[in-house]
Amino acid sequence: MTDKDRVKKEANLNKYEDLEGMTLNKMKLGLWLSLNRKRIWRFTIIALMAVSALMLIYSTYHYAHYFLYGRQADKDLLSEVTSNQIDVSAYREATSPTEMLIGNISTFSVQGKYDFLIPVSNPNLKHTGFFKYCLQDEADNNILCESNFILPGANKNIIIVGQKLSAKPQNLKLVVSDLFWQRLNAHNIPDWQAYQNEHLNLQISNLKYTAPENGSKSPFHTLSFTATNFSSYHLARLPLDILLYNGNSVSGVNIYNLDNFLSGEARDLSFSWLAAGERVSRVEIIPDANLLDAQIYLPYQGEVQP
Question: How far apart are CA 150 and CA 270, in angstroms?
């Protein structure tokens, strides 16, 4: 067959199939990129230069504006913020705790020794007070110096017992020092009354008091009662203030400590102490524990003491 006999036909590219995935469109794209490579590179460089120029102009403008006007505006704002336009003193006065109130001091003589009762009150409902105190006589002599606390909104008694003195002190005064107020953490204790009821739920029952007999050679007060811990907490020590009343007046005082007082425990107690001829119509027992102190609580079995 000669060349004249051959029929010239164009190749039908649409029928092209590549078994390795090279399609006709991909080949066209590759050809176009190859032919226009220099133009694409030149366009990219020009675009990047334009973006850089715009950013440089934008930055230069704002830097110039700040140095001309912004610095002075910042100084004016700082001066306005730091100036005393807000009455901070009024706010502090409204939120700061007020002073602890101290009542009249009562003295009780018991066979050459003296007991003292000093009522104190905390008018602050969100602050606990920690303080040192000295009980002084009229000559400013210290009879006793100790430290103590008072819970938020509490009325409590500072009781001092068994002080041996040569004579009954006169014009006593309580000198408080190093008074530190600690505000309750509202996140940990949002409701102080609920916290207090949960951590200290003491019931005193079967209270029996016997006054000393007249003419007895060994005059003793005798007191018995049952203390029940209805809280969920074991208490390492629970101090109890014991007040003897003659009508509405306190005629004598004492203190007692309940050690290792477990949750749910009902403990029968009975004890005696020297009397001095006081008249007693009723007895009041008041717990005096710092419920915010983790050391007063006993750990549960397996629990690590903080």
Answer: 28
Query: Angle between the 37-65 and 24-35 helix axes, to the nearest 10 degrees?
Result: 60
- Domain of residue 115, residue span: 96-184
Tokens of 92: 């502090």
pTM score above 0.70: no
Query: CA of 256: how far to CAs of 33, 55, 126, 131, 162, in Å?
Result: 98, 81, 28, 22, 13
Q: Report if residue 85 sits inside a domain.
A: no
Question: What average pLDDT does this structure show over 77-86?
Answer: 68
68, containing H or E segment = none
Chain centre distance of CA 256: 29
Mean pLDDT, rounded, of the chain: 86
Q: Which residue has the higher pLDDT, 74 or 223?
A: 223
**Spatial separation of the C-alpha atoms in residues 132 and 134, rounded to whole Å:** 7
In this model, does residue 120 exceed pLDDT 80?
yes
Residue where a domain terminates, one of 141, 168, 184: 184
C-alpha R_g of the chain: 44
Q: What is the mean pLDDT of residues 119-127?
A: 96
Q: Is the pLDDT of residue 15 over 70?
A: no
Top-confidence residue, 172 or 11: 172
Task: Print the SS3 string covering 139-171.
Answer: CCCEEEEEEEEECCCCEEEEEEEEEECCCCCCC
The total number of structural domains in the chain stands at 2
